[in-house]
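Problem: given the chain below (164 residues), write out its structure.
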Amino acid sequence: MTVYRYPTPEWLEESGKRYRADPKFQQALEKVTVKIFFLIRAEPDWGIEQDIIFGAITEKGALIDLRFFSRQEAWEKADFIMGATPQEWKKVLRKDNKFLTALMLGKISLEHGSKVGAVGLAPYSNTFIEAITQVELQFPDEMSPEELAEFRSYVNNFRVQLGV
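Solution.
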């Protein structure tokens, strides 16, 4: 099985392919039309030198876009932007913490959008998390020093290429 590094374009691309290939996600999220973005706070020890944002755009559960966005594009398009440290996102993606609990405790902050609207999405959060964690993820704190150095360089390069 291929292991995907978090956060990388390859992870998002493969997650998008799998989401679109499995009708259960669109069916479970058919009531959801949203532009939701996730801000991963800078964490140099994890090879993330500056905040980075990925987002999902869905229309009646159909995944329209899942990728990294520039800060400006995210703020222009977003219904919601949620921000947290990479360590907190890891806990949510590994299902060690529930999204709604982390949001209510302030471990995930609402950077943009209404709190009422964000809480309204909570019933769908487990399905979305399942959709983007169908692949095996490797987080930077699980990398050897050599892997982390290579990852840091890779992140910097893809960010320049993608303009994010």
